[in-house]
Amino acid sequence: MSGPARVLVVTGGSRGIGAATCRLAAGAGWDVAVNYTRDKAAADAVVAEVKAAGRRACAIQGDMALERDVVALFETAAALLGRIGGVVNNAGVVGDQAGRIADASADMITRVVDLNVTGALLVCREAARRLSTAKGGPGGAVVNVSSIAATLGGPGEYVWYAATKGAVDSMTIGLSRELAAEGVRVNAVSPGLIETDIHASGGQPDRLKRLGPQVPIGRAGTADEVAEAIVWLLSDAASYVTGANLRVGGGR
Ligand code: NAP
Q1: pTM for this structure?
Q2: Three state DSSP letters for 60-71
């Protein structure tokens, strides 16, 4: 592991897929800026694990739906850890009330779109500004965390969430082509049913148990299994991979 810019920013890095990515990335030689919104203790625990793996790390609070917090995250990460070479655009929510769109509130839809689409685009913007060699950056890699919901559509559960992940797929294609000649690779992973808190926070605490057996591979996946794909896409082993969308869905 060499090169000047082994600093990774992970949005929503305190729990779930983001936390697993921080831990695995540390083992692959990345210093890590761990973003979180509410759960400082969880973020601090991830920072401690990264440090135990011999890398530098810091926890940075910030709501990725807010432009000023997105900009501040990148500024703080660069000030504390140095030039950024990797970004995992992971923070995302499903909304707090699963169901049919006829029953969805405008407030909830807006909150999901603000984070999953506007926030994700702003994180891509800051990544482009900091990583692109045309902007004086070191080059690097961005991994956007989408979902297989983008192609399944989320009927009866969260069509609004699925639609935001369709937007993530589109921004991945566009940004990969926009930045390909400027030293920046941009890819997506699309997880399937993964064991994290997101299902309970979306009002479906039994979702894993209910849907796990229906996955072709026979079970839900783990956050670590998704992190493996993310860290590979970040790595030099994926040097000719850009604009890809890697499904980590157990056959879905
Ligand atoms: P999770 O366990 O609910 O964790 C969410 C993480 O995001 C936490 O670290 C949380 O920090 C942070 N976060 C929440 N709102 C934020 C905001 N406004 N700004 C910054 N950080 C915020 O979620 P997960 O399941 O790991 O999901 C991560 C990504 O994977 C999401 O984009 C999700 O859509 C995608 N995904 C998940 C699944 C799945 O089955 N789990 C499947 C497909 C795609 P705090 O704790 O501080 O709030």
Answers
A1: 0.98
A2: EECCCCCHHHHH
